[in-house]
Design a protein that fits this description.
- The structure is a homodimer.
- Chain A is an alpha+beta fold.
- Chain A folds into two domains: about 140 residues, Nucleoside Triphosphate Pyrophosphohydrolase (Alpha-Beta Complex), CATH 3.90.79; about 70 residues, Winged helix-like DNA-binding domain superfamily/Winged helix DNA-binding domain (Arc Repressor Mutant, subunit A, Orthogonal Bundle).
- Chain A is built from seven helices and nine strands.
- In chain A, β1 and β2 form a beta hairpin.
- Chain A is globular.
- Chains A and B meet through α1, β1, β4, β5 and β6 of A and α1, β1, β4, β5 and β6 of B.
- Chain A binds a DNA duplex through α6.
Chain lengths: ~230, ~230
DNA sequence: TCTAGATATTGTATTTTTGACAATAAATAA
DNA sequence: TTATTTATTGTCAAAAATACAATATCTAGA
């Protein structure tokens, strides 16, 4: 064990695939690219790239995401690692999935060297993808759903200023279950939100109040009172 | 992207490290080996091995575990993947942690080709380990603690026939909090357990009833009623 | 200006779950 | 038989979840 036979064992490649989630029109969307090179030319896929031999995984994930979205300071979460020997037609490529949550309205996606086309697709309308990307996507979405219920990451999907209804709709969507408005508000009462004193604009009915997440206060009560986000 | 430059990128190695948990004397224990080869000769470590170039990860994890413990049919859970470029002194070795839960009483550990020595160590008494194994161990134990609370895997750590107190002690240990006996029993009421009609032997007080987990019924109510294990 | 329509927001009453603690039961050991 | 120890069940109040009702606030159009 651990005696490395350089001839036999140094024959892998290692990649990272990024599942980028957004929330749009009441649906969770995933960023898809249309591949501009072989293999799987012109197939839809999730963005990914090989890791450099001396590159840390988290660093690589950040690099790939930045190259793609021009956004930085995003929370990247490691998901599952996939290593079926036949998952890549050109060799043994083990890949680790990372996911990121972004506010769709905050950036313009555009095709790049990465891809011929880039687009958002609702998670339930994803077509057949290249490689084992459907598998990766589904397993990562399952992880997202779990994490949404016990980590305060929903605020990375929602707009900076959001209504309580928008927040509720996100949870109704991922849990595939309707919730009572009044009871939802009771449930989130311990979560530190800042009432901004502003209201929704351009709606043709009573506008809802806007809130933002108080992440500093969250850290505070998490540390002092042991409070954990829970929905 | 995905254009593979075989010269630059095929220079990795890939390994799996197994964190093997058991429950003994009211404590969660981890299986440790004393390395019989370089690097880190004579250091304590968690068992791991390189993945063959054409070997699936899950298969490799199972193989390594079987080589080590002579047990099969164990539940292996993938944990985090570690890829710090400097984590291995002899080259770039990315590793994925898997963990397994075993009933300590069910098998005899013995040193093998793997190691000079093998022993169980309480999770809170683990010494400094080879490589980044302390990091791997801690992160995997955190994952175990989470999974214990929402998946019925405590029964893989407990004896086949267990008392409700043994079960409670496991949760008290990992949560580092005492629980009320009566309330614990209310909490686990929805979990399908089989009352065996047998009792503890050789105790010098009133013996407790023995139970076993009804995994078939669990699958049934999980599917039909959407019930999820929860503690 | 008034009113209908739509959604936001708050309140109330009931049921369910949790938590603290008391009471009882069943074994052993002397 | 009794003291001791642990297992097991029961009770009651507090807290949380649930269902549903009531009220508030905005827009749009008469």
């Amino acid at each position: 064990m651990y005696k490395i036979d350089f001839n036999n064992f140094f024959s892998y490649s290692f990649s990272i695939d990024c599942v980028i989630f957004g929330f749009k029109d009441g649906q969770v969307n995933v960023l898809m690219i249309k591949r501009s090179m072989k293999p799987y030319l012109n197939h839809w896929a999730i963005p990914g790239d090989l890791v450099y031999p001396d590159e840390d995984l988290q660093v690589a994930a950040t690099r790939i995401l930045t190259e793609l979205t021009n956004l930085s300071n995003l929370d990247l979460h490691q998901a599952q690692t996939f290593g079926d020997p036949n998952r890549h037609p050109q060799g043994r490529v083990i890949t680790t999935a990372y996911f990121a949550l972004i506010r769709i309205a905050d950036f313009e996606i555009e095709a790049s060297s990465f891809a011929e086309e880039v687009k958002w697709v609702p998670i339930h309308e994803v077509p057949d993808l290249a490689f084992d990307h459907n598998l990766i996507l589904n397993s990562t979405y399952e992880l997202l759903k779990k994490k949404l219920s016990y980590e305060p990451i929903c605020f990375d999907l929602l707009p900076e200023k959001f209504t309580l209804n928008q927040m509720q709709q996100l949870f109704e969507y991922v849990n595939e279950a309707e919730m009572d408005k009044a009871n939802f508000r009771k449930k989130i009462r311990p979560i530190p939100l800042i009432a901004l004193g502003e209201k929704q604009q351009n709606v043709k009915h009573r506008p809802a109040k806007l809130f933002s997440f108080d992440s500093e206060k969250y850290s505070e009560i998490a540390e002092e009172d042991g409070y954990r986000f829970k929905i």
